[in-house]
Please model this.
Amino acid sequence: MTKNFAIRRQSGDLESDIRTVLSDVGYLKNRPDRVFLKPNFTYPFFKPGVTTTRELIEALIRVLKDAGCSRITIGEGDGGYNAFSMEETFRNYRLEEFTARYGVEVVNVSKWPSLTLDIDARRGRFAVNIPRPIYEEFDSFITLPVPKVHAMTTISNAVKNQWGIVQDVFRLHFHVAFDEIITEVCRRLPKPIALVDGTFGLTRNGPMIEGIELPLGWVSACDDLWLNDQLICELMKMPMERVEHLMFAQKAGLMPSRQDCQFHGDFKSFVDDRFYLKRNFWNYVAKSTWYSRRWNHLVYFSDISNFLHKVMYSVRSKPKELSAKGVDWK
Model:
């Protein structure tokens, strides 16, 4: 089956740009009625290259309202490790204005009824709660990621963005089964597409506090989340072979072939050589917890975890707006 990827420069009329790329990938041809929007709100307030821009969210809402969608819901889950509450982010983004202006629903999906996934992974069996209404009440799911590097997963984009809907603020302990869990969470989504907010990107380190923002000025859409991330890797010049969850999806037969993709826009002109990943010592320590359940428990949940984090933050600064002893960077 042919897949579609569309990309264009932001023209100053973001609503028109979004309508164009969504039309290019065929999304508006068969109008969805009930749409769930998943921004990347992995910080208490807007941060360029880290979180989805408010402007893109509002422009997308207008496009969907004009298309006749009867239910539009914006949702995200609480910050991992209790780093911050999602209600705080909603307030800082002034999302209540979207409710008043457009009648959209704004939901902390951590508080929605749960659907439990029993996942057999390479390192054990895991019971993972996800928001049941997303999977049962919506015709379509639009994920709104930002192109950025990630110290744990190399890049963060359309697939990784759904980590935020896992209903567990201590989802750090799921990292040992990240590939299997994120694959299953995304595989079950109702008609998902990616609308990538390329207003800014993030390079050097990420996904939050040690990166360098990059002005980009584009927007893209893709009708397949895994293909989207394969192509975003190309745009960022980050080898997909270094992105473990994408390679897992490819081995599982979920990654469409690039040869089966129809491109809309001059893809090559958007390739950007400014992206790179420079991990620090603590990134390597954190990444090691992804490969052992015992080590993961020792570092994050055991009696000595507080001591380990005190040692780390004695030599590494942490923004005061992140209140937890550690942060589940999604």
Remarks:
- The two ends are 31 Å apart (CA to CA).
- Residues 324-330 have pLDDT under 50 and may be disordered.
- The chain has one domain: 3-315.
- Residues 3-315 form a domain with the Rossmann fold fold (CATH 3.40.50).
